[in-house]
Amino acid sequence: MNIFVTGTDTDIGKTVVTAGIAAVMQSLGYKAGVFKPFQSGAEEKNGFFVSPDLAFVKTVDFYIETRCSYLLKAPTAPLIAAELEGEHMEFSVVQSDYNALRKKCEVVLVEGAGGLMVPALEGKTMADIIKALNLPALIVARPDLGTINHTLLTINQAKCMGIDVSGVIINRYPEGTTDAAIKTAPRLIEEYSDAKILGIIPEIPNFSGVKPGEIIDIFINNVDIEKVFGIKIPKLNINL
Hints:
Elements: E1 2-7, H1 14-27, E2 32-40, E3 43-45, E4 48-50, H2 52-60, E5 65-72, H3 78-85, H4 91-104, E6 107-115, E7 119-121, E8 124-125, H5 126-133, E9 137-141, H6 147-160, E10 165-173, H7 180-191, E11 197-202, H8 212-222, H9 225-229
Parallel strand pairs: 1-6, 1-9, 2-5, 2-6, 9-10, 10-11
Antiparallel strand pairs: 3-4, 7-8
Helix pairs in contact: 1-2, 1-8, 6-7
């Protein structure tokens, strides 16, 4: 039960979606892990560089296992950030770290950087990493004008590269919207592809003030977790 979380663009909430789904699985009794192969924009804390994305995951559920292969300071594509810092990155390290986390966890969510075609390693895009790890992709999309084009392009590129698409989650959806582009986007994405919308996460005001239990509740109520992983979940005792 492992999956790669990618997006149609950068800064669309992949980390929130990753953390939310991981926390739900943990609440259902599964040992969950989140793996970040490349963290661009790493932050310095107490003399050490840390992953802000994985730090957020820990705020949602401290007991989720986390791991990162490469911490890179520049907030850019991993390949460029590594070049700027003189860092030599190898896929074998990513594979080893992923396997180590997989042995410890029943569920592993791998969060990418940006979208499918972001340069990750020399000669390899993020899509190549997904393919090499042999994982299905869960696509996170924004709700507004342009998302249909970006989402369909991402779905088609994934399929052209032989990557299975579990489905699409639309993030930061404004409740009560009257915007025609936003209202019709979920339907049109399904009509013009064979991918399904597996969740629509509402826009959350004052997100920093939301409690971990509330985040779990939002994802339980707005995401089809069973279809994300393509399984029937027998454990129904949710400990919020």
